[in-house]
Specification:
This protein is about 80% helix and about 0% strand. The protein has 8 helices and no strands. The longest helix has about 45 residues. It is elongated and about 75 Å long.
């Protein structure tokens, strides 16, 4: 008996996965770095917590606004291109079919087969055929501003909560080492989670996020130590 050939692909996750990984990574790195800088300046634990909470709120709102504006710009461009393509299909459908056929020829089909494919796809949904094969717009990559904004804000908040929790449960003298180590562990976990969700290998994504996270923590701690004044 033949088994059905069903494949599970991860490209459908690319929209929310990008926003989720970016949001959580920024939440951990920016909040932990802020905490490290303030703590290195000799601030009290309460001051460190206030700075961390302020960083969480400001960062989550900034991520949401930034993602919404950025992805909205992409969405506006897609809509403008689709409107232009729709008008061209109404004005000269024959020329558009030849254009679609030529795309398939350039991808390796014979001219006759390319014409047949273009003709059949144009009968079903001409705009979708041109959106996908001429413009590169598909249901997997279509811009979704609200989804990107909410995902980034939520994951930033979750990421930022990790170093804040470490500060809350750690004695004041151990804040810096505990936040540094725990944040790098969280980043490694995040890198592995993102790689697994995206179907990629684990080693390189984990090394990448841990390396740059360590750089950010070290730099901000150094600046806090250099310019901080113990009161």
């Amino acid at each position: 008996m033949k088994r059905s050939h069903l494949e599970g692909h991860v490209i459908s996750r690319v929209g929310w996965l990008r926003a989720a990984v970016l949001g959580a990574n920024d939440g951990i790195v920016s909040t932990a770095s802020l905490i490290m800088g303030v703590a290195a300046a000799g601030s009290s634990k309460s001051a460190v917590l206030v700075a961390g909470v302020a960083g969480l709120v400001a960062g989550a709102l900034s991520m949401a606004a930034g993602e919404y504006v950025s992805v909205s710009s992409q969405s506006d461009t897609e809509k403008a291109d689709l409107a232009k393509e729709r008008a061209e299909l109404e004005e000269s459908p024959e020329a558009e079919m030849r254009e679609l056929s030529q795309i398939y020829v350039e991808r390796g089909l014979t001219p006759d087969l390319a014409n047949q494919v273009a003709e059949q796809l144009m009968r079903v949904d001409p705009l979708m055929a041109h959106a996908r094969d001429e413009l590169g717009i598909s249901t997997f990559t279509t811009a979704r501003p609200v989804q990107a904004a909410l995902t980034s804000a939520a994951t930033f908040t979750l990421g930022a909560a990790a170093p804040l929790l470490a500060v809350f449960i750690t004695p004041v003298g151990w804040v810096m080492p505990v936040v540094a180590v725990s944040s790098l562990v969280f980043l490694a976990f995040l890198g592995g989670l993102g790689a697994a969700a995206g179907g990629a290998g684990l080693a390189r994504p984990i090394a990448r996020v841990v390396f740059w996270g360590a750089i950010a923590l070290a730099v901000t701690a150094g600046i806090g130590r250099l310019f901080g004044v113990v009161t």
